[in-house]
Amino acid sequence: MKTDNTFKLGDFEINRIGFGTMRASTGAGIWGDNHNKENTIKVIRTAIENGVNFIDTADSYGPYTSELLVQEAIRPFKNQVMLATKGGAVKYKPGAIMANGHPYYLRTAIEGSLKRLERETIDMYFLHRVDPNIPIEESVGALAEFQKEGKIKHIGISNVTVEQLEKAQNIAKIDAVQNAFSFKDRRYQAVVNKTTAENIAFIAHTPVAKNSWDDIAEVYAEQSRSAKAEKENVSTNQLSLSWLLQYAPNVISIPGTSSEKHLMENLASYDVNIKF
Fold this sequence. Notes:
Helices cover about 35% and strands about 20% of the residues. By secondary structure, it is of the alpha/beta class. The relative contact order is 0.14.
């Protein structure tokens, strides 16, 4: 793995294509169990065997079923991956979720995640959503307490603005931000730029949604004359992930899939030669 395809977070070197489990490990509407659990476990293990060492889940996926599946999948590789989960969002029916950033709730959430993931310490714990009824400083303050207690190694926040990130930074060291980001969805570009400037990991969720090959190749046709020539050999997902790899050195994408074929296709994005 080339050094520009990795990011150092604390003492852990992360390969910049990780694995997101939101859809891969749950049923329709991010609700209930995955219908092909053994296949998903196999795909996650294949990902790790091929260099993926950042696995992302959340207590709201299922709810809870994703964490249980992920723990089973990564059990043989416990010390080889950085495991991230999230708390502060409540899944109350298929397709519906609400924020709860109250410190008392977050205490319950992290204790549940520790039990399901069979950990004494969670490598990376994200505040999943900012609760409009609770100041972000209070929610992040709770995570800082959990960190002091040894329950969290690294603190992250998700789905945030620059202003919210700055408020969180007044309370604790923020090691990662997880927001949507892709070639077509750049609403959080200012957040990406801030994290890049401060060498904070930016975890790009939904990294290939809504992208099309022609959207990207057309924009970069002049800079990359080989783009059209390579169209038959490069998939939309590969082009999208390659764009993220080249966008900034702190961006880590977390595509998810329940297909080993798509997994290997995603990982081949490291070898795409089109330059943006």
